[in-house]
Each structure stands twice: as C-alpha cells, then as structure tokens.
Write a structure and sequence with these properties.
With 137 residues, the chain is α+β, with helices and mostly antiparallel strands. The protein contains three helices and four strands. It has a four-stranded mixed beta sheet. α3 links the parallel β2 and β3. α1 packs parallel to α2.
Length: 137
C-alpha cells in the first residue's frame, strides 16, 4: 500500500516538473533532474520523454554538451533503465553521454528508484561506470 501511494506521489511530482521546465528554458545552463521508476519498471513514459526532449533542446545551442545518467549499480534493473534513457536521446546532440554508477555513499535505502540526469555545457567529473550487479556471482 505504501509503495502504491509513494509511486502515485512520485508520478504526480514528475508531471509538475515538465511544465516548469517548459516555461523557463535555460539555454546552455547546467541542469539536473531525476527520473523515477516504478518497481521493476525499465521503460520511460511520455512525460519523461518530454522532459528529456525539453532539456536536450535547452542544450542544443551550446558549444559543448555533456550528459551523465547516474544509477544505483546494486539494482538489477539499472542497466536496462540506463539503456532506455540513452536510447531516448538524440545521439548527435551530445559530445559525451554516459551512464555511471551512484557512489555507495549516495545510495538511499527505502527510497524510490531513480536515475539522476545531469546535463552540462562543460566537462563533468567522470564517475564509476555502471556495472552489472550480477557479474562475478
């Protein structure tokens, strides 16, 4: 029951993010937002696709564009979720686009699953690549 209520709250908050981004485009300004996933969900909904499109357009005129998707490497769905986000992007819009693993100190237990998307007109620090949590098991 709690997960259902939490998922509904997360979905409602995601709906409020997209209109706010549409009203105040920030050209060539670093931006960050979260994409929340339901339990075992690995696909993107229309609202998320719109958010990515708006953010991508805001970086379109920059001399340099970099995108980083930070995921929880301990979650078995993280690889599929990262791949879904990368597939939704316009490859030609980015000088660098990568999926990274969230540092263990940044993991939040009992929190909803999310990907942190960071877009920047300057190079970002490189983090640890996302690894398969089942590798070597």
């Amino acid at each position: 029951m709690f997960r259902t209520i939490l998922a509904a709250c997360v979905a409602a908050s995601a709906l409020t993010i997209a209109p706010a981004m549409a009203e105040t485009p920030a050209r060539c300004e670093a931006t960050s937002f979260r994409i929340y996933f339901g339990q075992d969900q690995t696909t993107l909904d229309d609202t998320t696709l719109q958010m990515l499109d708006i953010a991508e357009r805001n970086m379109a005129d920059c001399e340099y564009t970099e995108l980083r998707v930070v995921m929880d490497g301990a979650n078995p769905q993280s690889r599929a979720r990262g791949a879904a986000i990368m597939a939704a992007l316009d490859e030609e819009a980015w000088d660098v686009a990568r999926v990274e693993q969230r540092a263990p100190t940044q993991r939040i237990s009992q929190a909803p699953e999310f990907a942190q998307v960071v877009m920047s007109p300057t190079p970002l620090n490189v983090g640890e690549p996302l690894r398969d949590p089942n590798a070597g098991v």
